[in-house]
Design a protein that fits this description.
Blueprint: H1 2-40, H2 45-59, H3 63-78, H4 82-89, H5 93-122, H6 126-134, H7 139-169, H8 181-192, H9 196-222
Helix pairs in contact: 1-2, 1-5, 1-8, 1-9, 2-5, 3-5, 5-7, 6-7, 7-9, 8-9
Length: about 230
């Protein structure tokens, strides 16, 4: 019983970091993704090409590699070690590595979300825009009052898939030694020489993803009033 409690304490600590990484990534990557989507649709060609090229690079390379590259930025660009960076900002090495992971995750998922948002915005019938113009509405009014809800409905399903993928991708945080749920489970396996921590970790992931699935299902029902 004591062993079970010790294992659960370790897993809960790791799950806390997993939740934090998940939440921060989601909060920052969604608005950034929308901004990149607008850049990809911009009529100003340099902005459009830069945005599209950036998305192509990020989507075409592994997230694992991006995490490692972000962690090397202080050394490669500024010629300083991570310990110096951590000291300068008053952080521990563990906190700094977590920040690196967050940066990589936010950039990666923002690019994926941007393509989802772009597809949703471009998928709205152009007649909706024209009808808004006829009514004398500004571009902002047309987008927020006419187009936005339709876009949300279109992107909800693919966004939910990316969000659930994000839950599983958080396991990549252990590349930099960040104690996430899976890292904690592996540590418990090595410490207590039992495989049950991995089973417990799988249950944590399944329950969390199950709650997210129910949540997105609720939102889909709320938006079902709109019929195309």
């Amino acid at each position: 019983m004591n062993q079970f409690l010790l294992i659960m304490e370790e897993l809960l600590q790791g799950f806390g970091n997993t939740l934090l990484l998940f939440a921060v990534t989601l909060v920052l990557s969604l608005p950034l993704g929308l901004l990149i989507a607008f850049g990809s649709m911009s009529k100003i060609k340099p902005i459009k090409y830069v945005a599209k090229t950036f998305v192509w690079i990020i989507r075409g390379s592994p997230l694992m590699l991006q995490i490692l590259l972000v962690s090397f930025i202080p050394t490669l660009i500024f010629g300083i070690g991570n310990k110096q960076v951590a000291t300068f900002f008053g952080l521990t090495i563990g906190d700094l590595l977590f920040v690196f992971v967050v940066i990589a995750f936010v950039i990666n998922y923002a690019c994926y979300f941007s393509e989802i948002f772009r597809g949703g915005i471009e998928g709205v019938n152009k007649g909706q825009y024209e009808a808004g113009k006829v009514l004398g509405m500004t571009k902002n009014q047309i987008f927020f009052k006419v187009v936005l809800l339709q876009v949300v409905k279109k992107v909800l399903a693919p966004t939910s898939n990316e969000v659930i993928t994000l839950v599983k991708d958080t396991a990549l945080a252990q590349i930099l030694g960040v104690i996430d749920l899976l890292n904690a489970a592996n540590h418990a396996v090595n410490s207590y020489v039992v495989l049950t921590p991995l089973i417990y970790a799988a249950i944590f992931y399944l329950l969390f993803n199950g709650l997210l699935t129910l949540l997105f299902g609720f939102f889909e029902k709320k938006l079902s009033f709109y019929k195309e």
